[in-house]
Amino acid sequence: MGKKLVDVMMEQHSPCVVSCTAVPGADQFYINVGFSFTEPQQGHDIFHIEINREELDKQLLNNNDTGLSVRPYDKKDFKALVDYDTEAKGYRSDAYVSMMVDCFPTYVAVHNDDRLAGYVAAFIKREEIVLDGLCADSDSIACHLFRKVLDEFPTRNNVKLQVPTSRLFLSQLGVICSSSKYNRYSLGQPTPSPLVKIYNVSDCDYSY
């Protein structure tokens, strides 16, 4: 049944390249239905971390982000947010951005001239903060956005991160309690997305 479903999907969307991340234990399924291990491999590393808010605040004191503010997303930000998301990931996805801002608390980092410098969304699942996406122009801006999420959920210090394998910065902001890895598989040869602005991805987001 699994291969038949994949074949039907490919017939409906042919010609196209399909890329996915496999949860632990599902690798053989994708191999059996024709997927190949993607090279260069940029799977998703999953980290469950415990945050030390005081240490994060100390790091923020050393940042020099004058002229930057972090505020809740507003509907007037939608076009700029889609454009920023497209630049960060290398492909356009209005549907993903719409889902994100409709379903989860979302914040944007904005320069004095109203240019977006990043965004973050998050929600609570099983007593844990789950980042649903964090893109930013720099490590320091990513820290400001991350801190805003912690302000949104002041009683929670456990956070789930889902990050591309080469983008582990956020995992250094807390103590890693557990981790796992989602390998990436493809049908066809995908074009790698730029990663310089990607700090955390969503289960609905397949940047790599």
TrEMBL record:
InterPro entries: Acyl/Acetyltrans_Enzymes (IPR052729), Acyl_CoA_acyltransferase (IPR016181)
PANTHER family according to UniProt: SLL0310 PROTEIN
Protein name listed in UniProt: YitH acetyltransferase (GNAT) domain-containing protein
Organism: Biomphalaria glabrata (Bloodfluke planorb)
Gene, per the UniProt record: 106068691
